[in-house]
Design brief:
By secondary structure, the protein is α/β, with parallel strands linked by helices. Helices cover 42% and strands 23% of the residues. It contains twelve helices and twelve strands. Strands 5-2-1-6-7-8-11-12 form an eight-stranded mixed beta sheet, with helices on both faces. The chain is globular and about 50 Å long. The chain starts with a strand and ends with a helix.
Length: 260
């Protein structure tokens, strides 16, 4: 793996592009919205600081043209919300006709790999595609300026699965060159059901709806928003997730254990 195309130019997309560039990879960035790419193109790259070090990463290609972004790439890293997966899959379908293309979803959210594969097939891809995913994003980060991203930390224990599952070990060996802390699991059902955001965020959002509206987001969501009552709601929701996993023959890990 020498050339990587990063799909997505949000917080984690910029962190990934900058981090991987500073690691020595040739990185291209693809995004649907030109407005998000403009600051990066204007500055010629991304300034990154924090847990992955500090420096200026000159990104090889910054474009809204998937064919330009994919030229020479042997690895596609999708770093975007789940709602963007169908769009990115449709775009990638135009350039991954060759056998053995590898796509990594960072993260896969819940069911991301399954959804992404389905979108590729609907778009006409009938060749063998290897999709892998993490259960959570590897970067804890935020954009802190124009073409500037601060990485506050790297997730140190990240579950990793592949679709088809027979390629998990092979893909894990490749991905460890950039994310050595991944922990392979049996299937993408394991990674999908280990998406702690799906358990933690909805409960916190719904039970803090009044505060969110009045404060317009001006409070610390995890610290101030997660009271004992909110925690009990998270636990109740998590119990349902654990029971579904048991019924599918999976090995459930409680939310609290995954979170810590």
């Amino acid at each position: 793996m020498k050339s990587i195309t990063v799909l997505g130019a949000g917080n984690a997309g910029c962190a990934a592009a900058a981090h991987l560039t500073l690691m020595g990879f040739s990185v291209s960035m693809f995004n649907r919205w030109e407005s998000e790419l403009a600051p990066i193109r204007e500055k010629g790259g991304i300034h990154v600081k924090g847990a992955v070090g500090e420096g200026f990463a000159e990104i090889k290609t910054v474009t809204t043209d998937i064919e330009e972004a994919a030229e020479g790439a042997d690895f596609f890293l999708v770093v975007a919300p789940a709602l963007a997966h169908d769009y990115f899959a449709t775009q990638l379908a135009r350039v991954i006709g060759r056998k053995g293309a590898t796509i990594m979803l960072n993260p896969g959210h819940t069911g991301g790999a399954l959804h992404f594969m389905q979108s590729l097939r609907k778009a006409g891809v009938d060749s063998e595609v290897r999709i892998c995913e993490t259960n959570t994003n590897t970067y804890i980060c935020r954009l802190t300026g124009a073409a500037e991203v601060t990485v506050y930390g790297l997730a140190r224990k990240v579950l990793f699965g592949a679709l088809p599952g027979k390629y998990t070990d092979e893909r894990a060996e490749t991905v460890r060159s950039i994310y050595p802390f991944i922990s392979p699991v049996e299937s993408v059902l394991d990674t999908g059901f280990a998406n702690v955001n799906a358990i933690m965020h909805p409960a916190g959002m719904l039970l803090n709806a009044g505060r969110i509206e009045r404060k317009k987001g001006g409070f610390t969501f995890y610290d101030k928003g997660t009271t004992e009552a909110v925690g009990r709601a998270i636990d109740a929701l998590d119990l349902e997730r654990l029971n579904v996993m048991k019924s599918l023959g999976l090995a459930p890990i409680p939310f609290v254990d995954v979170f810590y």
